[in-house]
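Reader question, answered in our methods column.
A reader sent in the components of a multi-part assembly and asked whether the whole thing could be modeled at once rather than chain by chain. We filled in our standard form and ran it. Here is what they sent:
COMPLEX SIZE: two components
ENTRIES:
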Amino acid sequence: MAEVHAEAVHAHAAPTGFIRKYIFSLDHKVIGKQYYFLALFSVFVGTLLSILMRLHLVWPDAHIPLLDKLSPVGAPGGVMTPEYYLSLLTLHGTLMVFFVLTTAPQGGFGNYFLPIQIGAEDMAFPTLNMLSFWVTFVGLVVLMATFFIGDGPPISGWTAYPPLSAVGSAAGPGLALGQTLWIVSIAIFCVGSLLGALNFITTTLDLRARGMSLGRMPLTCWAWLITAVLALLSFAVLLAAGILLLLDRVGGTSFFIPGGLIVSDKIIANHSGGSPLLWQHLFWFFGHPEVYIAILPGMGLTSHVLSTFARKPIFGYRAMVMAMMAIGFFGFMVWGHHMFVSGMSPYSGFAFSVLTMAIGVPSAKLVSSQMKAAKSGRARKVPCRISSSVPASLW
Amino acid sequence: MALAIAVAVTVITLLSVYIFWAHIWWLPVSISTHGAAVDHQFKLTLLICGVVFILAQLGLAYVVLKYRDRRDKRPVVYSHGNNRLEVTWTLAATIVFTGLNLMGYQVWANMHFIGVAPGALRVEVQGQQFAYYFRYPGADGQFGPIHLDRVDDATGNFFGLDRDHDATAKDDIVTATLGVPVNREIELILRSKDVGHSFYVRELRLQQDMLPGLAVPVHFKVTDEGLKHNAGRYEIVCTQLCGLGHYKMRAFLQVMTQEDFDKWLQAQASGQ
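And here is the structure of the entire assembly that came back:
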């Protein structure tokens, strides 16, 4: 056994060059930090965009310094045009949802802490992990490129509903190259997320230390596992939807474009038979699990942190796991609640409403158990009590 | 520090509840027959959520304060769980959610499962970048066919009607304001010419997306209340991002007595 162990140690010689050590590192902690800094950059840009949006709402005719340098067409003389407002809005939403909320809790904190919490040396596929990060990075570069090349960022919102996002520049500025680049960026991001999700699931199922059964894992690990399963199933659908939309735009297909459209006095003659509602179904089938992907790691973390600093085990560990699984499972059945007035059948609306109410039960269970954990514990450090109170009070 | 958090949570809770309690920002007037049921469901849900919110937040403040670190050697009490309590409050939550859902079902069903009553006034609503146009079927009660190649915004032929050759199109009345008579069933057929739009009148408690490729019927009846406010004029706004003019895409619903409506429609018809 000692010989085998010695061989294993020698197989992992530490990288020596700067590039292999810091840029294309295979180490989960470095990759976790890289994801974290990507999310930090994205949140700064996204916040700046939201400030610009707020400035415009309060003072629509104000001259905003440097804005005309960023976009002479979108903000001539520094005064934001309505279409540029929509561009900023679209990029704000896209950056925040994808490059902050999906990367930081899972890719950032998850990559850093999961191996440590389950007693593994690293993630199951370190090279894939490194690739996932850099693929996500390329996705961010493509998205940011929409500011500087082509006709500006798209104006169709982070949900990119067709036909607005499908018929091209006839429907507005930013909808030619800008929208295409947006779709490409999101598709690249989907690939990165899918690879990352595979890594998380494999790591959690296969690399737990001896004695660390699934029933003994910290709740944060459960949250990351369930989140990864959600990501695997939902990002696949978004990738497919994005490809269909791209084909509608450049391939002459009509998945989402019905016939008989007249946009800007021009009849759209070469598309027919598609359904804008189909995009909404595909998008929100991804979109609802997406918000659970964003929040579940936080919920797991809250339980974990609360129990640590209250110095007692979490109340009802099994129930918490069941609640998180129920939230994840039901999360795939409620997407229609983003589409109640979309034009889909009102009977579907009723069905989605019932399922949405049903999700409230495990969610309430989760939060009430967290509150019970806080009760009769002895809080040690204040910052954690604050940070755990906030999610609890959010509910 | 624990005191500060407890106080902050309590203050924020009471302040936010007060904002709703005192109706600082509240619902606009309801002018449709189904509006009362919608408002009732909303208020009941808000009340229940408000009560649970207060209990949960004040409970949180209490727990944060009572179980703060007092730097003494007080031992932590380990609870082996209380299954009865768990089941009770999970069951309570389920009953409340199910109850609200069943009540809401009634409201939704009355608006969407039941079709419009016969003899309703039918109006076709077309959304386009960035305006609404309305079409009344005229005396024959039928909408004339739409010809895409005849659509010409410049000459006001928004629907692409061929009045010279289509008999049913001759008496169609196209307007830029949605005039409706009070106390009469109205059916709207919502369509879109180019991208997704939405039809939303707050006071009617009615919102429905207008997607190209679909013709979605909705129906409502305006009560006498509709005549009493704003001279019967209510805003129709687009609530589905449709492009750079989305922010200013709006039209107006004009509620009138039956006689006024007939006169108005007559005047619109002669201007076609």
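What stands out: The radius of gyration of chain A is 23 Å. Chain A touches chain B through 68 residues (CB under 8 Å).
Send us your own complexes using the same form.
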